[in-house]
Amino acid sequence: AKKKGKGGYQHFSDNLSRQNDEFSVIEQKMHEAVENERFELYFQPIVDSNTHRIVSLEALIRWYDVEFGFIPPDKFIPLAEKNGLITVIGDWVIREACRQLKIWQDSGIVDIQLAINVSAIQLNNPKFAQELYQTIKNSGIIPGTLYIELTETTIINGEQEIFVTLEWLRSKGIRVALDDFGTGYSSLSYLRNLPIDILKIDQSFIRDINDKNNNVILSAVIVMAHALGFKVVAEGVEERGHLAFLVKEGCDLLQGYMFSRPQTADDITRLLLKETKE
Ligand code: C2E
Ligand code: CA
Ligand code: CA
Ligand code: CA
């Protein structure tokens, strides 16, 4: 340890080591959580922008720890990507998503799609696509009802093989959504050849609806995405003003707190059953 009184230095290193301690504690807890499957999937509805009916759901992982409470995925997923646990966690997400989707389909809810988030590390595993396909097949869910979300950075930083992988998945009926679009600095020429089905516009663009320049970009992105044959999802729709603009611009699908927060499978089941009765 350094001597005290060296300006802000001591303070800084104290903070740093405290942060490291916290990280290693979380890391240790993460190992335990993985072993004991202490995770849960929540599901957030994605609705048709005209009818507001639920078209699909995004599975979002939740980790509740008795000591720390909810540890947000924004915090532990990046950590799991560094320590390699993302592979095991990701496999669990796939199995659990299939299991839950099967339950819904067996109860008569057959027209809902389910999206899972896949990280770059998972995708870079050469066995990933084949294993995903097998898991889906073995689960007995209706083909084509489970799809994956990949962030823009995952795809643009990826190797050329990723394109082949994505084409293969799509040929097997596993659609691909490009997540967080607009945050990864992908070039337009890149977009031209992208083997994807759905483009999810990042929340930051939705938050800035009202800003003139932002809206020009947003409108252009929607037009461009449609011309390239993609469906467009707007994420983080929170206000009526957002909704009005997005509907006017022809955005296909909407996701955000205005419609629903991520919820447990039980709550989503009630919601879906209510909808089918309407
Ligand atoms: P994401 O994939 O971009 O997921 C959307 C995030 O935005 C979710 O946060 C969701 O709860 C939140 N959100 C949805 N609507 C609104 C809204 O109207 N307003 C605001 N402020 N937020 C909204 P969440 O669940 O905390 O997840 C954060 C990130 O963690 C995800 O961002 C994704 O990158 C990652 N993540 C979550 N689950 C998984 C998973 O199973 N696997 C992997 N690899 N990553 C995951
Ligand atoms: Ca996502
Ligand atoms: Ca996103
Ligand atoms: Ca995000």
UniProtKB/TrEMBL annotation:
> Where in this chain does the record put each EAL domain?
23-276
Which residues of the entire protein appear here: the answer is 534 to 811 of 817
Q: Which organism is it from?
A: Shewanella sediminis (strain HAW-EB3)
What is the recorded name of this protein? Signal transduction protein containing a membrane domain, an EAL and a GGDEF domain
